[in-house]
Design brief:
331 residues, alpha/beta, disordered C terminus, globular, two-stranded parallel ribbon
Length: 331
């Protein structure tokens, strides 16, 4: 739910026309929205896609693997499955039905349990130089996943690496295949030309399972719904094919979304279109009335610059790579 400040005064950057429609439907003024494309896609294409070999060498050297290792990368949208009831109540207070959140949480947890059993079987079949890499969601720790493996299997399978080292895009750049449920990392796999497959488990018994086709970035992609299908994909010569088409126009294919975003920011500054727009709107009020994601991003930026030792404890949950590691773009 947007505040009046967000609707009338704040400037919004949208990836494409689809997101413009979402914002306008929330009563955001159209004149305050600029289409920029997806800056992260530009960063990946300019920084990561041309350095895939060196990134893989960096990662394999760190984990003491051969540089020609085959890597099957798994990264899910799984944070909600590890959320406490208190967190779920907090999310539902922002306008999401609690029953739906609990249903999705249950579905994802069943997905994770199924996947853990699959990984155990797969580990026994992989060649010596092949590895399964599981990177938890930014909000989930390695320890939480290890605990699940021990609860379900009693051990962590060989050839399985559960890690928060390096960011998800670096792992993608180093991978031979990417598997997920419905993570937007699928968009990054497209930018890196890494083949991707969706794990979809409609047979898990939920009355209304989490329909993957509800997510626009998942439509039309290859899926596996059984261990046999997963095995076939891994044992095949599965190649990347540019199969994904954004039919809803959610992402404008800007040549350089970063430069375009910077251009609009410079325009706003040059024209004096910065906060506070009115005498009775101070910065503090603007921040308090902003969406929580905006506030979170601001806090992370401040912590990046602070170098306060207290926050180094977040390394244990892998937060530094996901939230506190600055990414610098070189033109």
């Amino acid at each position: 739910v947007f505040s009046e400040i967000t609707k009338e005064y704040q400037h919004h950057f949208a990836w494409g026309d689809g997101f413009v429609d979402v914002l306008v439907n929330q009563k955001v003024l159209r004149k305050n929205i600029q289409i920029t494309g997806r800056p992260l896609s530009t960063l990946i294409e300019k920084e990561y896609s041309i350095k895939k070999k060196s990134i893989k060498e960096l990662i394999t050297d760190f984990h003491d693997l051969r540089s020609d290792s085959k890597i099957f990368f798994f990264a899910l949208t799984d944070g909600i499955a590890f959320c406490s009831l208190r967190t779920i109540n907090s999310v539902s207070s922002r306008g999401f039905p609690k029953e739906k959140i609990l249903e999705i949480s249950q579905y994802i947890l069943i997905t994770i349990h199924t996947l853990i059993n699959w990984m155990a079987e797969l580990s026994q079949e992989l060649q010596e130089n092949s590895f399964i890499v599981l990177r938890p969601h930014p909000s989930v720790s390695v320890q939480e996943y290890e605990k699940l493996f021990y609860e379900i299997l009693g051990y962590v399978p060989k050839n399985l690496i559960i890690t928060k080292t390096f960011n998800a895009q670096q792992w993608l750049a180093s991978s031979d295949l990417y598997f997920t449920n419905y993570s937007t990392l699928l968009l990054d796999s497209d930018s890196l030309a890494v083949p991707s497959v969706i794990l979809d488990f409609p047979e898990n018994g939920l009355e209304n399972h989490n329909n993957i086709e509800n997510y626009w970035w998942c439509k039309g992609r290859d899926k596996v719904a059984s261990f046999q299908e997963l095995r076939e994909v891994i044992n095949s010569d599965y190649k990347y094919e540019k199969q994904y088409i954004d039919k809803e126009g959610y992402i404008d294919q800007a040549e350089d979304s970063i430069s375009l975003s910077c251009y609009y920011i410079n325009q706003y500054v040059a024209q004096g279109k910065t906060f506070p727009p009115k005498a009775n709107l101070n910065y503090f009020k603007v921040i308090l009335k902003s969406p929580r994601r905006v506030i979170g991003n601001l806090v992370r930026k401040l912590l990046i610059s602070s170098n306060i030792k207290f926050f180094s404890s977040l390394v244990n949950r892998g937060f530094t790579y996901d939230y506190f590691k600055p990414i610098r773009y070189r033109s």
